[in-house]
Design brief:
single chain; 397 residues; alpha/beta; FAD/NAD(P)-binding domain; D-Amino Acid Oxidase, Chain A, domain 2; 3 domains; 7-stranded mixed sheet; 12 helices; binds flavin-adenine dinucleotide
Amino acid sequence: MIWDLVIIGGGPVGSYAGYLSAKNNIKTLILEEHDKIGEPIHCLGKLSIHAFEEFDLPKETIVNDLKGGYFFSPSGEYLKLKKDSSDSFILDRILFDKTIAEKAEKSGCSYSLNSKAIGVNHYENHSTLMVEEKGKTKYINTKVILVAEGAKRQFLRKIGLKTRPYLVSLQYEISDLNPLDKECVEVYFGSNYSQGFFLWVSPFKNMVKLGIAVNPSYNPKVFLDNFIRNKLKERSEKIYIEKAYGGIIPIFGPYEEFIPPNILIVGDSAGYNKSTTGGGIYFGLKGAEIAVSQIKKYLEDNSISHLSNYPKLTKKSFGKELIFTKIVRKFLNSLNDNDLNLIWAILKENDEILKTIEKHGDTAYQTSIIKIFPNLITSKNFFKLLPLIKTFVKSLL
Ligand SMILES: Cc1cc2nc3c(=O)[nH]c(=O)nc-3n(C[C@H](O)[C@H](O)[C@H](O)COP(=O)(O)OP(=O)(O)OC[C@H]3O[C@@H](n4cnc5c(N)ncnc54)[C@H](O)[C@@H]3O)c2cc1C
């Protein structure tokens, strides 16, 4: 038997691609290395409202509505940026992944659990994937392969592709603790909280998720445990960590790869994550839509250009957003704690800028922040930022 499409990875992006392709009558199989969909979990599950407007996603998996955040400087000053209405949601990520997979199955997509793709051979009109299932190797034939195996890129590394550095992360689910505001995330910047990223506290059901990502040369647990000792103990004497889990986050921009003759890559495997926040679900789903549309055209007329054009099309659709976040991440990572404190001080005295961010800021489309530039340039303290402009220009290179 030859499948039209085999998707490697049953995460939200792979399953959503499976859902779309099965709906388009593409004979689709998803390989998932674990025995359950959605587990082990690694993610916070924050997703922009745009995702629910644009994609057919299960609303019942939303557990919290968010309207903004409290952004803390290294010295402890905070900027509160809160909209009047929700701008994103926190999902039950396990349920989210499972429900999308159920929708995919109902549409006709097949799943093979405990099945890890480990290699591939190409033949004239199909490819054969080598798949490890409980210690045995099986062979699966397909016309097209869509890799949605997440940030580790295990299969891609096996077939010789490189993987860029990434951040390591750790998250605790903590019960009996309230966030500062049930409609906002708390984000902590500075060298005490993280190296190379930030630390977050987010509402999650009636608990909080405390999380961090750091450069891999640091231990995320040290930062989280310090935070509990120095900050959270002020809020609650006893801290109950119900669950701890981690993962890796690619933040060095999209890969833009096409592997001839028939391998497309999507989601975290393709680096479709915002470098500022690590969020990858939204652009992963967008990538899945584009991939399936190109695969459908390829299966109709056999023209390989539909597949090889896929990286260009994703770049056209959201490449600008991803590159912008990469520049901002490079800029942020080149600032020291004093630079960050200065930026906070200037923003704090400028109500217009904060209002512009509240009005136009968009967690998915972060280029919207450019709208603050006119206010920033005319701000009376703009000259204080001049030394940082050189650093910003360097981030563009
Ligand atoms: C701590 C943390 C917090 C995060 N918070 C957010 C957030 O709030 N919002 C957001 O948008 N994003 C967040 N992310 C990123 C988000 O988790 C990913 O962008 C998202 O899960 C990407 O989905 P995916 O389907 O591409 O990959 P994954 O969800 O990683 O799914 C890949 C699947 O492929 C399977 N697999 C791997 N290799 C193979 C193989 N060779 N064969 C078969 N199966 C394989 C894996 O078991 C997994 O099920 C966070 C990440 C981390 C680590």
